[in-house]
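Give me the fold.
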Amino acid sequence: MLAFLPWLRLREPIRFERFFLLPHVVASDLPQDTASDVSVGTIGRVLSHYYDGANRPLSTVVLLQYDGKPLGADFDQYEQGEIFRFGRYLAVSGMCDRRFIGGFHNNYTATGHYQILLQGFSEPYQGGVNLTYRRKDGHANVFMGQTDIRFFRPAHLVFQGEPTLNIDMLRGLQLLHTVNGNVREHIEASITQYLLANSDSPDVSRGVETIATCSALERVTNASQRVDDLQAKTLTCVAIVDDSPWTEALGAYLNTSAKGRPILRAWVKQLYVLRGRLAHGKPAHCAQKMWSQDEHLLAGAFIYPLVLKCQLSAMGLYRMTDEDVAHVLGLDALLGAWPFFEVLEELTADMEQPDGRETRNTSYLAGGRPNLNRWQQQFETINLALVSIAIRHSVREAIDNHFSTSGQD
């Protein structure tokens, strides 16, 4: 049995507890220290059925070893469950830091990029595959001969994903087994909904993704079915950043003077109402809303990982970074910058307002990137705040070191 991720690329091997992710060039030799019960030729023939395009077999995949077992070893049901659970956690750790700001280096991935396949075969491998599909009346088996087999990368994934994994998030999720069973079940259920909401698959409608987005937020906060409870628990969860050492400094740059995060509260309510309409078969466009359905999906894809990080942090399973804190503090500004995808005209660096006040163009200050949409502009503001604080911290540290050294002289 071979465990592998066909639609993912990694720059280097990752060893994490019982799991070892190994980037592999198809048909090439394995590293000398990689144990395998099957030949390189067999592995190559198995992987040769997977295509990146109509006439482009995959050149690289990610092989997965579990618990020190050699490649090709069989896995029992428990082990298979552990492997697939790890795949879910891997997907969350790969998608939790997405910014949705575009560009070739955005490292955008969707749920399907993290699909783990377990393919059983006999040695020597003959090339045939038996596929079992579930049906309402049971199941159906389909046998495919060697020349018939071609598995293509789903077109909506565009290319093999190359994420920057948040290893601290992955570590925290792997430690969920140490927390209360009910809490763990709620978080596991929320991950299921989050992965469904971020499939990007044309087979999953926007309505289903919207329902899953709201369900993920409900489950991760353990909220009841009342909207006021979901609002309260979401705001209580993210309030953990209020005690962060980064908050005071970042707040001065991000203008977080509004108490109670009113825009986040309003967004949660409108998502809840939209979910209710869709779940009862009503059209989305009839709902009263400030945000479009696509904007709700974008915001939910960004907010859920932040709420999950806050929950894990409260349980001691994750340490919030300065960026995490900045993104939580900037939520009201991000949500308030609607319509998100509206591109504003390029402004001058300094533009005088009618009342004589001077407005700074943050896009210009951040490096002259013109024609950003509203969502991107808010991220420019957040990034400027982080850079400014880092510079201030470095200068202060240099001054302290200077005077400390001078005092010793």
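The chain has three domains: 2-133+141-157, 175-326, 360-409.
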